[in-house]
Amino acid sequence: MSDALINGLAGAGGGIIAQLITYPLQTVNTRQQTERDLKKEKRKHGTIKQMCQVVKHEGWGRLYGGLAPSLAGTAASQGVYYYFYQIFRNKAEAASLERMKIGIGDGSVGMFSSLVVAALSGCLNVLLTNPIWVVVTRMQTHSKISKKSHPGQTLSVTPDETIPAASELPPYGTSHAIQEVFDEAGVRGFWKGVFPTLIMVSNPSMQFMLYETMLKRLKKRRALSKKGNNGVTALEIFLLGALAKLGATVVTYPLLVVKSRLQAKQVFTGDKRHHYKGTLDAILKMIRYEGFNGFYKGMSTKIVQSVLAAAVLFMVKEELVRGVRLLLSKDAINAVKSKPP
């Protein structure tokens, strides 16, 4: 089994576990990002309170709306990312060693090369998996439909509204979200928000650059210590992953808000604040009607969710890679021992 495949499968496994743990926070955060009701903004609650409101008015299931396609998307996304990341990383390491032979550099992959490797992997990941995340965003932001509303009009639930019981609500699953996106914009609709998402490749790029840099320095420091042990514990991987994700999220969060706005259901009403024609239109309208604060809606929730998810992902992924390599090495040793002399 190739090293790229091992990392790809381990990344998919780590991503699924992280998603299961943090998904309710992700659902609430997506709703915070796409909220454009100014009256509701004045009555906004904290993350825990909002989760309780969703459970109270829409049931526990709505906190996990879109979980199935999200898990599929996470597995595909992390698998694709880590697979190509390892391939590009191997090429970068080989190029660094070749340069060292002619007296250039020390043979290690530099920060800029790490950034390029992560960016290339991220772009391929975005282009291949964006349709899945459009569907997930629709399912996360779908809320109850009032009997008084027009057919097909999705309303945000506030404490003052009268809403039907959960048993009276029409079903809304993956197939409904796919059909809704297709009816609005055809096949092109599944790539809504792809432009800011491609720009947001800088988020995982920064994350992995920071992670690799901190990990490299930690291993180097361990190797220079008296014990000469450069091993890293699962807890240390967890903390490094959290720190790397925190730095990347703070810088790129506004792009995440714009992406969510574009991928959420467009409200075709007389209020032009609720309809975006594209990335630039969304940015200009958010600045005009909401100010720069609009780009940081739900940021505290996102920091908690993304940092926790990234830390779990890194820790689980590294442990899976270590475990698989150990099993493969044992199998290889056993195979050699079992060969007749």
From TrEMBL:
Protein topology in the membrane: Multi-pass membrane protein
Lineage: superkingdom: Eukaryota
GO cellular component: membrane
One Pfam family per UniProt: Mito_carr
Compartment annotation: Membrane
Solcar repeat residue numbers: 2-91, 109-217, 232-323
UniProt name for this protein: Peroxisomal nicotinamide adenine dinucleotide carrier
Organism: Carpinus fangiana
